[in-house]
Amino acid sequence: MRHYNEGWANGFKWGIRYWEIWNEPEQKPMWSGTRAEFFELYRVAANHLKKCFPQIKIGGYGGCGFYAIDVQAPHEGGDFYGSFVPWFEEFCKFTQDPKTACPFDFFSWHLYTSEPERIVRHAEYARRVLDANGLKNTESIFNEWNCELAYGDWCVFDTMKEAPAAAFVAAAFALLQPSSVDSAMYYDALPSRAYCGLFYYPSGRTTPCYETFRAFNELRKLGTAVDCFSDEPHMYLTAAKGKDGASAILAANYSWPGDAKTRRVNVSVAGGAKMYRKYVVDLGSPVLSCAGEWKTDEPLVLPAYTTCLLLAGCELEGAPEYKARSGALNGLAQ
What we know:
single chain; TIM Barrel; Immunoglobulin-like
């Protein structure tokens, strides 16, 4: 910490505020000791670090998740997945017990799923348990999430990049905005990793899922979230406005597995424009492409697994220029 925040040992002064202790200690590859031993490690480390660096936020522990609260697949119903819940509940009690009290500024947790609404259910569970243990000021940080469409099959990593996953991510963005989650981190964007949904490897080209992030960035730049409603299940919407009257809507038609179909939705946006320019990413268009204009007095029609960006009073920022890799690939000249 002194190296990264205080310049010690030819280091840096980055002012990093959040420091997470461990990652997924519930599973053996990450932690080989007992639950009690991990709790004690956290207690000692958190108290010492808070004493040395009172301005930082200390938390953990990158929990594996809460799959057992709403089991959706056979592998989630066993003892291993079932153990994640008591880990969390006992850890909350441990940090608040006067005999073992320690800083717990944030709780970080993970989820991989094909159902966007599951994010909300798990977030509500985490918040409910924290609050019940007197941890109302402890932040809920959802710091590993991605779309898992084919559990147990290596092709799951391919599906994380394509149009259905792009629509899933747009749905997640919409559901996270009003949720109890304080911050969320998609996992991940490192091109050479299997879990990377934003880039193809080894080419480095961007994916349809990347385009959803690019679309959401247009809302982020406007700065203020506004209410946006639909009357159709499996249609997900979130919207933003700028100080100059500009407006943007991110919409997605997502359902997995099954029930994939074109959907029509009536959209109501607080303080929105009457006419929007429409951009889409879908099964036939891997890059945000202009699809004409949309009037708010008409239904918005989206085919299955379509992500749609609607802009009024602002322009879509250009995509980054792709630069082909040079050099050898697997020892062979390109």
